[in-house]
């Protein structure tokens, strides 16, 4: 998938067009713990599988002008039409949640978690991986840095939710009906 330079170029191109678009970010939850427990080769397989799932979803449910990129590690960015972004994000969650248990040993899958050291060296239970997906609706008035900042703020909120979740900046405010879409 295209990397950071291509992502930056595509965002700039969209901003110059001044047409509305959705700037979306997908992050894998608990990949580091999975990597520590199962090893780099299996974790890399999860990243590759996620990229393949996203490509397939964009082919089947995206619009011809949509863009999909890989920032690095377990972070993906896509730019989609505001009318199709919800369907793309929902399909991404469904496909990931259906495929990811197969990357775990049967016992871990049945238990629903793995147990490994966290970032501070403390033994902890980590649930089966999930995805946090966020979308920032852009209208051409903001710059790439502002879009990335809004996405990072939403991502922080999404990661606080257990399990896969999709949040949008124009919907996901306290008290808004349907804030958690996943």
Tell me about this structure.
The strands form two sheets. This protein has a five-stranded mixed sheet, sandwiched between helices. The protein has a two-stranded antiparallel sheet with strand order 4-5. Helix 6 links the parallel strand 6 and strand 7. It is 45% helix and 24% strand. The chain contains six helices and seven strands, in the order H-E-H-H-E-E-H-H-E-E-E-H-E. The radius of gyration is 17 Å and the shape is elongated. It is α+β, with helices and mostly antiparallel strands and 182 residues long.
Shape: elongated
How large is the share of residues in beta strands? 15-25%
Structural class assignment: alpha+beta
- Element order: H for helix, E for strand: HEHHEEHHEEEHE
Q: What average pLDDT do the residues reach?
A: 91
Biggest sheet architecture: 5 strands, mixed
Give the proportion of residues in helices.
40-55%
Distance from first to last alpha carbon: 25 Å
User: Which stretches of 5+ consecutive residues score pLDDT under 50?
Assistant: 173-182
* Count of individual beta strands: 7
User: What is the tally of helical segments?
Assistant: 6
Instruction: Report Rg.
Output: 17 Å
The strand line-up of the biggest sheet is: 2-3-1-6-7
């Amino acid at each position: 998938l295209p990397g950071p330079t291509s992502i930056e170029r595509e965002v700039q191109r969209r901003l110059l067009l001044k047409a509305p678009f959705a700037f979306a970010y997908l992050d894998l939850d608990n990949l580091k713990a999975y990597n520590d427990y199962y090893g780099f080769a299996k974790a890399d397989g999860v990243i590759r599988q996620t990229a393949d799932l996203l490509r397939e979803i964009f082919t089947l449910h995206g619009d011809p002008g949509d863009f999909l990129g890989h920032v690095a590690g377990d972070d993906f960015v896509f730019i989609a039409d505001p009318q199709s972004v919800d369907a793309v994000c929902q399909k991404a969650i469904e496909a990931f949640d259906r495929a990811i248990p197969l990357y775990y040993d049967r016992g871990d899958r049945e238990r629903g978690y793995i147990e490994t050291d966290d970032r501070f060296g403390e033994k902890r239970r980590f649930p089966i991986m999930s995805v946090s997906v966020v979308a920032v609706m852009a209208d051409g008035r903001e710059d790439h840095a502002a879009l990335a900042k809004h996405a990072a703020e939403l991502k922080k909120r999404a990661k606080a939710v257990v399990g896969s979740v999709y949040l949008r900046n124009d919907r996901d405010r306290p008290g808004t009906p349907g804030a958690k879409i996943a």
